[in-house]
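Field reference: sequence -> structure
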Amino acid sequence: MSGNRVSKQKPCQHCKSRSPSAPPGTAMIHYEKFWLYRHCSSVQQRDMQAQKAGQLFSGLLAMNVVFLGSAFISSMIFNHVAITLADVWILLSILKVLCLCWITYYLLGTSRQPHAVLYRDSHAGPIWIRGSVLLFGSFSILLNVFQIGYSAILMQCKSRVEIVFPSIEILFICTQALFLWHHSKDCIQVQHNFTRCGLMLTIATNLLLWLLAVTNDTIHMEIESQLREVEQRFEGKAPFPRNESAACTCPNTTICKVFQKGYILLYPFNTEYCLVCCSVLYVMWKNVGRRISHHHIPHIKPKFKLQGVVFGPLLGISAVIIGICIFMLYQIQATGSAPNHQVFVMYYSYYIVLLPLMSVGAVIGTIIHALEKKELDTLKNPTRSLDVVLLMGAALGQIGMSYFSIVAIVATDPRDLLNSLILSHSVLLIFQNITQNIFIIDGLHRQPFAAAIEARPTGHAGEQAVASELPGEEETTSSSNQEHTEMKEEQNHEAYDQRRVNMLELGQEIRKVSLSYIHSYSHLSWKRRALREISFFLVLCNIILWVMPTFGAHPVFENGLEKSFYGYSTWFAIVNFGLPLGVFYRMHSVGGLLEVYVTA
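Structure field:
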């Protein structure tokens, strides 16, 4: 037989070396076969070569699909007469329908076969990743609903494709989110090559959707920026070329304005959703046919607990509150017809204060990692390998834009106040990205702390440590009995005394919880405490640095310095490459820092 076959003799030999704690059913192993390596004498060697061949051919499939879609999108940008946006939508709709067919077959067929999922990767699909898929997927669905409503209002000047495409997109997002939520940890052991091809086709489709979303967002920003320049100069020397969609304006109605504003507000979440789905699908692709030994399965899985952190949340929350205030002021000032010069000074000053604090925290955390005596985790982990690649790759967006800004400022006038702030911001941003990547990557490769080393005191000793600082329960009980007897004599003060007793009990409980938290905090070692403080502070800082560019704060394009130096088209291409990667880097850094916090 040419397909996957259940071996009856080899698994028995394999079972002799297995631990009794291995997952049940591992005796029925589906070894991979490939026609190029059918003459291999060893079953394990043939299985390994077949796995590599399957990954190669599925990768080639994805590469060809991405190149075809990129050619369509590029043709639409440079020659919108021959290839229109509707043609690109038709191609992507065909790809999404094919992906929906494969996902449905996987949910109803492949995953339900006997011995299909013998292993599950505990590192793959953490809760924050799956939560991001649901969150961004929900916003993307709402985005498509707004697009359908907006197109329905302007039906007289829009094609039906602009309604059909978002409808298919909603179905695709819902099905893919359900698939990733339940099966992101699967190490599928049947139909290896078909599953790899399906996963790679879905990855390629998400990449093309991301590329189209970035391109469309770029066009909207370009039109808005050029109209702003026209309003500032009160002249039309460089008018934007009109097309059919330019004449299709939104009528002066409330519902149309709501659809239009909601579409613009939710647009960045669609790009984030596509990138997150690509990362999860890639880990699933790497786990196809993977057999995990019992040594890879953690016996104690660390959980997120808000213990041992005091100063990190305080500093982080302060940075978030200040950042939100500056972001609101920036949005009010920068979205006007004439952006104020002072708002850019305030925006870059905030970054210049925050980035050194983040860099110092990352450097201190890296030094603490070097002082630790924990062993490095050298086991094979596709999720961790992907996290490292994504951190390094996504950081190239902000680093690249920073170097372009440095060259433009040094070549023009670095002594100007705004230019000197932009120069300092660019240098500090490069240093912060590098130090944070080193801290996160080093922390991801560290083994978690043993729970028995620094465990909280339990039993009678722990209870006595907390109870020794609390008032005796016997005294409280006796006093409450006396109060109850007095209340019988004085019925007019019954309600007042009852509230007093409740307040005393509530204060006692709050004091008990506070003392317990301080007691657990004091028993943490200074290294572990410092790592948790730094990680939590960096998590909150990366959240606010993700929120500001995601919801429309783009000073790198709106200050006009780099745009006038490189030219409009060149600088816009640089921003188009770096800005989405920078947003994705901040979001992915939050996940990596949470992993470091939990393992600490």
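Note: The beta strands are 5-6, 30-31, 117-120, 186-188.
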